[in-house]
Amino acid sequence: MAGAAIGVAHCLALPSKFTTLSLHSSSSSSCSVPFSSLSFSSNLSQTVFSKGRLSISIIRRPIHHSIVCDAAPTKKADSAAKRARQAEKRRIYNKARKSEVRTRMKKVLEELEVLKKKPDAQAEEVLPIEKLIAEAYSVIDKAVKVGTLHRNTGARRKSRLARRKKAVEIHHGWYTPAPLVTA
Fold it and tell me: What share of the chain is helix, strand, coil (3-state, %, to 5)?
């Protein structure tokens, strides 16, 4: 039995990176329990032991004792892999939505910039830009609804578009802000 304890002690004191795992009795032990060598290749141990667990148990049989060193991956590896797949799928989906939001905002801001630089612009030229703004608002609201954007981020982006539109209207004189009322 002392040989079994020595074998278990050797197995528990393994380094974190396995190159070779051997269980055998020492010749100086007083126990007459024979052990056969057990070894793993380095590439097997790297993949199995980095993702799993190592359990050691002593099996007592009437004729001889043996140590079983079982290496198996844990069940969490399956769920972790699934979560990784789900996260990757969501990342791609969210990336597309965010890209669409940025594209719509960019189109609106470019059109507003062109209108602001135009010297003889008419008030009716804002109507197509208002349609673009409505489309951008819709895309932003959908991104907020599905959780791609935080609601405050969506509100900030919509506000940015509205402020730029108002700045263009003030620039051309189509809108005059109400004077501040002081009490």
Answer: 60, 10, 30
